[in-house]
Amino acid sequence: MPIDFKDEKSRSARRAKRRKTNIILNTLIAIVLVLILLVGGSIFFGGGSETEQAGSPPDNHESDSEQTEQTQEATAEVEPNEEQGNEESTEEDEKSDEIREMDSDEPNVEKVIVNPSWKPIGTEQNGHQSSYNMGTTDWNEKLQAAAYAIGISADNMNDWWVTGGEDPENQAVLTVSEKGSDDTYRVYIEWISGEGWKPVEVKKLIENDKR
């Protein structure tokens, strides 16, 4: 069969055209891929720098650390003052609870004693009426309050004198001493409604002026 050179040339031309087209397409695809990589890299790596320059998390972290340090320094300055204030307050409370003994210029009075921790002794009376009659409930409670003030039992106390104060219904003054002792005390008490007689002041006498 005779060879058709014309047909052979036509097929060669078509193959050359396809190769050229493939080369162009491959080149375009390669260019697109390169552009994608460049743009992606710019976004990925460039974004971090922009974020840092714009004042973002790293700077905020540093700012938070500085604020924390400042807060700690301020706390360190305040805490000693607070502790000192608490210590002073505690010392004042302790002093306010201490028994106070004061010298006196009053005739026949050696010293005056005040104890802030004194409390009312309680009462069995339903309605209070001050009594200066021996053996009554109110009389006995007066003696108990005086004994409590000088730290002894009422059974172990001599009551030399009992009288009313400026307000005889709610105040009383007792001159007492412990049995067998030469120490004599003048005890001032006051009535606390519903709670009984409470010592308010004790004067230690130089000598018993009621014996």
UniProtKB/TrEMBL annotation:
Residues 68-78 have a biased composition (Low complexity). Keywords: Membrane, Transmembrane, Transmembrane helix. It comes from the Bacteria. Residues 113-205 form the DUF1510 domain. Residues 79-96 have a biased composition (Acidic residues). Residues 49-129 are annotated as: Disordered. This is DUF1510 family protein. It comes from Siminovitchia sediminis.
